[in-house]
Design goal:
Number of domains: 1
Helix content: 40-55%
CATH topology: Rossmann fold
Number of helices: 14
CATH architecture: 3-Layer(aba) Sandwich
Low-confidence stretches: 15-40, 318-326
Number of strands: 8
Largest sheet: 8 strands, mixed
CATH superfamily: P-loop containing nucleotide triphosphate hydrolases
Mean pLDDT: 84
Strand order of the largest sheet: 3-4-2-5-1-6-7-8
Distance between the termini: 85 Å
CATH class: Alpha Beta
Strand content: 5-15%
Shape: globular
Order of helices and strands: HEHEHHHEEHHEHEHEHEHHHH
């Protein structure tokens, strides 16, 4: 007795049936396609935070390295972009100059894609686009270009393109140079928000007022969505009356924009870069490491509040935005 003929349009199923009841071919298509569509959702752009202060020695690079490490430690995919020609963020994360095949200079002059410059660090989920001294001549090279202030924004555009084998970053931290030059303007034009490290010293408020004016100028001319994410007080010495007075003055002047977390002056934080390590890797249990972990948690919480406010119906700012507007 011959076996029944097999219908080519309906070959026998080797795997168990998807359901215990009969389903039509139209139902099969609906069930199979929906999960696939959910798996290929459009990649979301990362949140870009520029770490900026035109005053040197306030802890910008230290904050970029250790905040990036802390965010990675809590599960975020983080990219640090080193826009300082001194390249201290790159060195502080153990990236040898010989391993910097492409740098942020190559990216900004258009000779390399940002993805080409990214180097994985020893910290899981933390990558960096390193810089070189060539970056110091960028302003002269592109000064006549019409898009000179938007080079970084253009480079960040295809970052989370969803290509196979690449990481989609959730945060990009841009370490700015200690000046309000074209590199810093590029970072501000590309950023969602500015994080301002402020040393607990006498001239702190004077430098802050100048930076805030620059932010307002960039907001009015280049990036209307730019906001001050927050001000983080660094190098605080609780034994020093001046440090405590600066904390009080900054909180009085800037209110809710100042993070609750204060980064203390700590020897282990100062030692870590000489070993090419973030302080969280060098000494996880020191007070500096604990402070940066608290700061990362606070930033993520503030991000949730900002996103909730921006998603308020009818385009109206939410209560968090109204109370915390700069």
């Amino acid at each position: 007795m011959s076996e029944p003929a097999t219908d080519p349009a309906n070959p026998p199923m080797e795997s168990p049936p998807m359901s215990s009841h009969d389903i039509s071919s139209g139902d099969v298509i609906a069930i199979d396609v929906a999960p696939l569509a959910s798996r290929i959702a459009t990649p979301q752009p990362p949140r870009v935070i520029a770490i900026a202060n035109q005053k040197g020695g306030v802890g910008k690079t230290t904050t970029a390295i250790n905040l990036g490490t802390a965010l990675a430690a809590v599960g975020e995919e983080v990219l640090i972009i080193d826009l300082d020609p001194q390249g201290n963020a790159s060195t502080g994360l153990g990236i040898d100059r010989r391993n910097r095949r492409y740098s942020t200079y190559d990216v900004l002059i258009g000779e390399a894609m940002l993805r080409d410059a990214i180097v994985q660090t020893a910290v899981p989920r933390l990558s960096i686009a390193p810089s070189t001294l060539d970056l110091s001549g960028l302003e002269l090279e592109v000064s006549q270009a019409r898009d000179r202030a938007f080079r970084m924004r253009t480079a960040l555009g295809p970052l989370n393109a969803g290509r196979p084998g690449t990481t989609d970053f959730t945060y990009v931290l841009v370490d700015c140079p200690p000046s309000l030059n074209l590199l810093t303007v590029n970072a501000m034009a590309a950023a969602n928000a500015i994080l301002v490290p402020l040393q607990c010293e006498f001239f702190a408020l004077e430098g802050l007022s100048q930076l805030l004016k620059t932010v307002e100028q960039v907001k009015s001319t280049l990036n209307p969505q730019l906001t001050i994410h927050g001000i983080v007080l660094t190098m605080h010495d609780a034994r020093n009356n001046l440090s405590n007075q600066v904390v009080a003055d900054v909180r009085q002047n800037s209110g809710e924009k100042v993070y609750d977390t204060i980064i203390p002056r700590n020897v282990r934080v100062s030692e870590a870069p000489s070993y090419g390590k973030p302080v969280l890797v060098y000494d996880l249990k020191c007070v500096g490491s604990e402070a940066y972990l608290r700061l990362a948690t606070e930033i993520i919480q503030r991000e949730k509040e900002l996103l909730a406010g921006s998603a308020h119906p009818d385009g109206e700012p939410g209560p968090d935005q109204q109370s915390g507007a700069a």
